[in-house]
């Protein structure tokens, strides 16, 4: 068994590394793509908006644009096959795609529930089914899943988003236990509030709000240190984690107070 901070391979030298970022047209994905390109990695960016992706890799000869819809299993297979043909493999796949809007339980619709779960959860499963066979065959590679501190506990207003991210946290944990012995790295990324087109929909105060560039730097630091969980900013994520560990009679009372505040 492996203990300590370095549960994963420590990704320090990015020169020549082949990284596929899915959900990289804006926000954390776009910032991380630019940071990796600056470190000499080969970076493929995927999302539905080709124009936004082109802007991310503009001027970088090692940047590749591959448009796809994460909700379509055939897109995952076709895009992965094309990338492997061009690069002869992928070293790290980062699952960044997400759908979010603040939502109370009484505002739910079946359509929104379907769309959010399909993007945030099913899309990751479709991707895993496409990329894992080749990684397992060569016994190398890494999977990074962007979840959220909203998955730690049932935060007010995250009726769909929070449970979908909780599912990804659970998935990353079991992937690590299953894949580590096969030589694969699994990285769980849990951001707090990051300024983006998604969080711009929030009407409440977002404590410890950071920029996508700061988030990208925190992710790179975590990857370089071989962390399993990469959570940031720590002053906020540690607080939410602490609340999640409290007895329900205390934690649920705190959440009710948050509901009244927001």
UniProtKB/TrEMBL annotation:
The keyword Iron is assigned to this record: no
Keyword annotations from UniProtKB, A to Z: Oxidoreductase
InterPro entries the record matches: NAD(P)-bd_dom_sf (IPR036291), SDR_fam (IPR002347)
Alphabetical list of Gene3D superfamilies matching this protein: NAD(P)-binding Rossmann-like Domain
Family per record: Belongs to the short-chain dehydrogenases/reductases (SDR) family.
Protein name: SDR family NAD(P)-dependent oxidoreductase
The organism of origin for this protein: Cupriavidus campinensis
């Amino acid at each position: 068994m492996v203990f300590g901070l370095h549960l994963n391979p420590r990704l320090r030298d990015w020169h020549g590394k082949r990284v596929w970022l899915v959900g990289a047209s804006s926000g954390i994905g776009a910032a991380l793509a630019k940071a990796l390109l600056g470190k000499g990695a080969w970076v493929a960016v995927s999302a539905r908006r080709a124009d936004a992706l082109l802007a991310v890799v503009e001027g970088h000869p090692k940047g590749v644009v591959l448009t796809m819809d994460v909700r379509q299993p055939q897109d995952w297979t076709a895009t992965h096959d094309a990338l492997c043909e061009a690069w002869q493999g992928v070293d790290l796949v980062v699952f960044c795609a997400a759908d979010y809007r603040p939502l109370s339980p009484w505002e739910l619709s079946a359509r929104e529930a379907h769309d959010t779960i399909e993007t945030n959860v099913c899309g990751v499963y479709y991707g895993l089914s496409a990329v894992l066979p080749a990684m397992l065959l060569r016994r190398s590679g890494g999977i990074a899943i962007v979840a959220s501190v909203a998955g730690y506990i049932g935060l007010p207003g995250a009726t769909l988003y929070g449970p979908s991210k909780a599912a990804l946290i659970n998935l990353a944990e079991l992937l690590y236990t299953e894949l580590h012995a096969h030589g694969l790295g699994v990285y769980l990324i849990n951001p707090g509030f990051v300024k983006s087109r998604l969080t711009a929909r929030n009407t409440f105060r977002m404590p410890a709000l950071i920029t996508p560039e700061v988030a990208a730097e925190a992710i790179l630091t975590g990857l370089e240190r071989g962390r399993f969980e990469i959570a940031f900013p720590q002053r906020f994520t540690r607080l939410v984690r602490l609340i999640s560990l409290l007895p329900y009679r205390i934690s649920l009372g705190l959440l009710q107070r948050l509901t009244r505040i927001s």
